[in-house]
Input
Amino acid sequence: MLGIVLNRQLDSKIILTKITDPELKPGEALIRIKAAALNHRDEWCRQGLYPNLSDGVILGSDGAGIVEKVFDEADSSWLGKEVIIHPGMNWGSNQKAQSREFKILGMPGNGTFAEFCAVPVDRLHDKPAHLSWEEAGALPLAGVTATGHWFIMVKFKPVIKSW
Output
């Protein structure tokens, strides 16, 4: 498959190259990426401004696609589904701050800037039918960040008025 990987030896710091298909681990699904979005995190990785950088890692945190394969038979209900990928893993119990185990797809592990991406099934969500692939692919990290700020940090509460 093709993927965009970090290569700090190049002037551009990234390269579109042929890479091996992901091998699934227990609890993972293989997603055929239909759309992936660029965000500041990807550019920070390219510029060397992100921790734990590793050449050869597929960049990209945001994405949406179709579940092609699952490791566990128990997860077979996901097969063929159109999904949005939640890229954050192991946030922890404190809603205001991530745990030390927190990770995001695309660094230090492989991300969504490839034809396929291996993702834990608990990070998959049904793609809303009204969203295009591009909209669904751009939503995850920015959407989670915005939601966290509004509802956790700002403590926004919707006001319901009865007329």
Observations:
- The first helix runs from residue 40 to 46.
